[in-house]
Design a protein that fits this description.
Number of domains: 2
Low-confidence stretches: none
Radius of gyration: 23 Å
CATH superfamily of the largest domain: HUPs
Helix content: 40-55%
Structural class: alpha/beta
Order of helices and strands: HEHEHEHEHHEEHHHEEHHHEEE
Number of helices: 12
């Protein structure tokens, strides 16, 4: 499994990688497996969020477990929030802080591959979570085996085809001690509630494996749509610079609405790549729907971009809104 992943996604010239190790069975199994296969240096990163009294002790416990692995250097990264602990969206804010800390550590050392312990059960939970939020093809493609983050770090998930029970079995068979995070079963968090529903859903045929396969099929469709949209994006352009993109309106309208939507989103990303400005997908969908309708398109601003049509010149124009 690991060899195939490296051959397909990583290559053989990588000398240093990082692994996110929380202390759970999934991340501990991942780190031990990588230690057996990878000949380079492994930086195991454990984040102490400071949200539970036991967090610091658990991080030290992980350090002790990994100290037996000769090619693993363990580091504890602490989220410094002082006495101002988050009271809302705790898991979301902790996740952002965790990735920020690990990314900073990696950039300082020139490491670009971060291995994560996400497995098949996580993929199934992500699918259900996003389905409940009304996600489309992109959202339901869930987690990809390799994904480049905005800060240039490659997130590597080699265990998306492995169930958590198999990882627990690996830990037990190899005397790897792991920690059970109480938040994983707390009804305070949506993912924990979804996790508890998995047994019921599995009884109706919605097993983790089937949900994971469904996610991979959405990922395949997403990749195809992205390729078609990118080709159409460049084919429709009449003029383009850093502040303005002009499309051939009729050529743009000749594409299916899903492709038009993706072209518009590609253009928004291209224009706003420097400032990270964004807009909700629903608002972009509404704009796209108005554009493809038979009525006259009304000039508007969304996500820092002005959208307008020049009927006489057969142009659909997107330009950055002027700011003072």
């Amino acid at each position: 499994m690991i060899k195939e992943f490296f051959d397909k996604h990583i290559g053989g010239d990588v000398k240093n990688i990082a692994v996110a190790v929380s202390g759970g069975a999934d991340s501990m199994a991942l780190c031990f497996m990588l230690s057996e296969y990878f000949s380079g240096e492994i930086h195991a990163l454990t984040v102490d969020h400071g949200l539970r009294e036991s967090a610091a002790g658990e991080a030290l416990h992980v350090a002790g477990q990994l100290s037996h692995l000769s090619n693993v250097n363990h580091h504890i990264l602490k989220w410094e929030h002082g006495e101002d602990k988050p009271k809302a969206r705790i898991q979301e804010r902790a996740r952002f802080a965790r990735y920020d800390l690990m990314s900073t550590y990696m950039k300082e050392r020139g490491i670009i591959h971060l291995f994560l312990g996400h497995h098949m059960d996580d993929q199934a939970e992500t699918f259900l979570f996003r389905l409940a939020k009304g996600s489309g093809v992109d959202g339901l493609s869930c987690m990809l085996p390799v994904q480049k983050s905005e800060n240039g770090i490659f997130l590597c998930r080699l265990m998306l085809g492995t169930g958590k029970s198999d990882l627990i079995k690996y830990c037990n068979e190899n005397a790897v001690d792991f920690i059970d995070d109480p938040s994983n079963v707390s009804d305070d968090y949506a993912r924990a509630r979804l996790r508890k529903s998995m047994d019921i859903l599995a009884g109706e045929g919605l097993s983790a494996k089937r949900l994971s396969v469904c996610a991979s099929r959405h990922a395949r469709a997403r990749k195809a749509l992205e390729m078609v949209a990118k080709t159409a994006f460049y084919a429709c352009i009449l003029d383009k610079d850093a502040k303005r993109i002009v499309f051939n309106k009729n050529m743009l309208l000749s594409s299916p609405e899903e492709i038009i939507l993706r072209i518009i989103m590609l253009a928004m990303t291209s224009l706003n790549q420097s400032n990270g400005y964004g807009a909700r997908t629903e608002k972009i969908e509404n704009l796209c729907s108005d554009f493809v309708s038979l009525g006259a398109f009304r000039r508007r601003t969304l996500g820092g971009i002005i959208f307008e049509c020049n009927v006489k010149k057969n142009e659909f124009i997107m330009s950055l809104e002027k700011t003072t």
